[in-house]
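Sequence only, no structure available. Ideas?
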Amino acid sequence: MVRVIDKQHFQTVARQVISLGLFSKFKIDLNRLCDLGRHGCDLRIHSDFAPLSFTFCLFNREGRFIYNGGFIYSGPDQPLDGSFPALCVSLDNEHRVGWSIHT
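Reply:
I predicted one. Tokens follow.
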């Protein structure tokens, strides 16, 4: 099961993604994240401070916490080099536009 906790943030991000022409990429990457919520697990998606990004928590069938992480946007104005606003690092040398799952 997948639940979006902060629906307003999700809708705001979706509008921005559409205006940037990134909806197709967002959908593909979001489906990868949503795969974590299959097989009886509960995936809860929350807002994040980084633009166009989310945090998430995964719980097992009994409601016990498994792990959490970030669904982090990387783009021309937001590289994954540890700098603000994403504050995340990618080990991939190639900069890409899209979302990655950080745990």
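The chain has one domain: 2-102.
Hope that gets you unstuck.
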